[in-house]
């Protein structure tokens, strides 16, 4: 398993290429902008994009979808139904590509990799984290030393419950968030004020 991080767009959203080097396949996670650049990187890496996965539907995580869909019209795009239901305003802009639903507990296959879906509402109603191997893609739920804001269609109570759930996962993970740098789950358990508050709540 290889992971390529690509900050894209004016907000520096982390788009990820999750690659199974054994099968030459890849998933794009949160193509927030610069779809052509993501396509070019996949080509340079010698991988075929098979999945496009959205942790949530805010504009800065979906802006590159159109370019990807034009180039890859048969590649499925996954989005939680609770965010799909919100589409159509400035914060959750309408998408011009079809999406498939995924729910808590679903497992998607990418080559030899299993991608488990964790529904983690709070930043948005349909926010998800994606767990594969030792990696946890947290979207805008959990950041290094922080958490996602809740004033763009979210809920403080829900994100606290989601952080508590993430803190309770067994073992450690590489945390790959939607913005800023990577961290680890154990580091966030020890140092993240919001996660500590969630665990105590």
UniProtKB/TrEMBL annotation:
Coiled-coil ranges (or none): none
Positions of the Metallo-beta-lactamase domain: 12-179
Keywords: Hydrolase, Metal-binding, Zinc
Domain of life: Bacteria
Pfam family, one: Lactamase_B
SUPFAM superfamilies: Metallo-hydrolase/oxidoreductase
Signal peptide extent: none
Cofactor annotation: Zn(2+)
Protein name as it appears in the record: MBL fold metallo-hydrolase
Organism: Flavonifractor hominis
């Amino acid at each position: 398993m290889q992971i390529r991080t690509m900050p894209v767009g004016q907000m520096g959203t982390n788009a990820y290429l999750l690659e199974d080097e054994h099968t030459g396949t890849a998933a794009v996670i949160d193509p927030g902008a610069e779809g052509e650049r993501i396509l070019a990187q996949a080509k340079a890496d010698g991988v075929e994009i098979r999945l496009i996965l959205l942790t949530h539907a805010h504009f800065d995580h979906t802006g590159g979808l159109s370019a990807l869909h034009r180039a890859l019209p048969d590649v499925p795009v996954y989005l939680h139904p609770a965010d799909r239901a919100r589409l159509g305003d400035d914060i959750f802009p309408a998408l011009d590509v079809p999406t498939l639903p995924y729910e808590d507990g679903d497992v998607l296959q990418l080559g030899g990799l299993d991608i488990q879906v964790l529904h983690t509402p709070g930043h948005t109603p349909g926010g998800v984290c994606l767990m594969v191997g030792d990696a946890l893609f947290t979207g805008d739920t959990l950041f290094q030393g922080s958490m996602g804001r809740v004033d763009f269609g979210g809920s403080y109570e829900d994100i606290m419950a989601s952080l508590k759930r993430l803190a309770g996962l067994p073992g450690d993970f590489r945390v790959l968030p939607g913005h800023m740098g990577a961290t680890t789950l154990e580091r966030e358990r020890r140092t993240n004020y919001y996660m500590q508050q969630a665990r105590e709540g």
